[in-house]
Write a structure and sequence with these properties.
The chain is α/β, with parallel strands linked by helices. The chain contains 13 helices and 19 strands. The structure holds cytidine-5'-triphosphate. The site of cytidine-5'-triphosphate has 14 residues, from helix 11 and strand 16.
């Protein structure tokens, strides 16, 4: 018996060369005792024959909406699945999912399904980097899909680059952890902050920072997936609302502080991922500052430190802070953990490519008040969000 024994998973296969690797994924799932139903797109059946998947899963493979006379096959398949994994997920599949199209059995089934979704994209580099695909990926992630890969490596037609489907073992782990995450934050009220704040200089200009909001949005989406009642208070960012999350959009540190303080007494945890400005212009100009008046007076004054204030007011709440550092990561993290009276701090490296502001990945450590530190390592922000939620769930259970 494994934790996956008897779980009902739908394996969707869309039409790309990586379809042959999803036979290995199917094998891993079956070996772990999973009850797998394979659904293929018509294009996928041209890459790998349905009999291969049927033999490995021990069940007929479905690919045609009209193969059964009652024409509700997609509804039955959707209701049965505890989780759906699409591997490979082509650019076309991501686009259809993002738009909510239902033009074949797999897309119809996934539109009807309410279960968690894991996607393993695979395509040529140009398709992956196309703004349409990147936007579709963000929409799907915002709705709670777990996106695994793609990796860099050899592609079809002798090319190499990003776009190769993640290895079957990695997709298998993502499926396992998504199922294990379950509903461990059910009934928990979580406030998450995200993004930068904009501090007005005049009616059109502001002081801000490079935060994209991706970390906070990932944390909010993950907490909601695990059953939490999540309010996301975000500064100005260009990200869609995550599924099942109440989103409050603010501009300044003062507005963010007010929204967080209002909800603090009633919440169980605060994940403070926002890059709140430490200072703001002391005397913002009314209207637009004119060039002829010479350089403006940019005297700054401190903003309220939201997290330190929460640390002082804290009763039962679990407090998670972030520290963005360029040097002395761990000592700075430990200092902020103690000084702000936090339970956890995520210390991430900023100022290098592939980590910190704007990136999809991070080099980060997690430090806890009672130890159990996790040394710095590379994460996707989605993985890091899952690790933070694991720790929050166990801290709440221990209160
Ligand atoms: N934070 C906050 N309010 C502020 C500034 C920061 O709540 N006015 C929070 C951030 O959301 C983050 C944590 O405090 O969770 C640490 O932010 P960071 O900028 O790294 O630390 P600072 O205390 O501002 O210290 P410094 O900028 O000197 O490193």
């Amino acid at each position: 018996m494994t934790s996956l024994t008897g779980r009902r998973i739908l394996l969707g296969v869309s039409g790309g060369i990586a379809a042959y690797k999803s036979a290995s994924l199917l094998r891993l799932l079956v070996e772990a005792g999973v009850d797998v139903q394979v659904v293929m797109t018509p294009a996928a059946t041209r890459f790998v024959g349905p009999p291969t998947f049927a033999a490995l899963s021990g069940k007929p493979v479905h690919a045609d909406v009209f193969e059964q006379p009652d024409a509700v096959l997609h509804v039955r398949l959707a209701r049965r699945a505890e989780l759906a994994v699409v591997a490979p997920a082509t650019a076309n599949m991501l686009a259809r999912l993002a738009l909510g199209l239902a033009d074949d059995l797999l897309s119809s089934t996934l539109l009807e399904a309410t279960c968690p979704l894991v996607l393993a994209p695979a395509m040529h580099t140009g398709m992956w980097n196309h703004p349409a695909t990147l936007a579709n990926k963000e929409v799907l992630r915002g709705r709670g899909a777990v996106i695994v890969g793609p990796d860099e490596g050899p592609l079809a037609a002798g090319d190499a680059g990003i776009g190769r489907m993640a290895e079957p073992e990695v997709i298998f782990e993502a499926v396992r952890s998504r199922l294990a995450a379950g509903e461990d934050l059910s009934g928990v009220r979580v406030v998450v902050t995200a993004g930068p704040t904009h501090e007005p200089i005049d009616a059109v200009r502001y002081l801000g920072n490079r935060s994209s909001g991706k970390m906070g949005f990932a944390a909010a989406a993950e907490a909601a997936r695990r059953g939490a009642d999540v309010t996301l208070i975000t500064g100005p960012v260009a990200l869609p609302d995550p599924a099942g999350v109440q989103v409050v959009r603010v501009e300044t540190a003062e507005e963010m502080a007010r929204e967080v303080f209002d909800r603090f007494p009633e919440c169980h945890a605060v994940i403070m991922a926002a890059a709140v400005a430490d200072f703001r212009p002391a005397r913002p100009v009314e209207g637009k500052f004119k060039k002829d008046a010479g350089p403006p007076d940019l005297t700054l004054e401190p903003t309220v430190d939201v997290l330190s204030t929460l640390g002082k007011r804290k009763e039962h709440q679990v407090l998670v802070g972030f520290a963005a550092e360029t040097v002395e990561l761990l000592p700075e993290g430990r200092r902020k953990l103690a000084e702000k009276n936090l339970d956890l701090i995520v210390v991430n490296e900023v100022g290098r490519p592939g980590t910190g502001f704007g990136a999809d990945t991070d080099v980060a450590a997690i430090l806890g008040r009672r130890g159990e530190d996790m040394a710095p390592r590379a994460w996707t922000k989605v993985e890091l969000a899952a690790a933070i939620c694991d720790r929050v769930a166990s801290l709440i259970r221990s209160v």
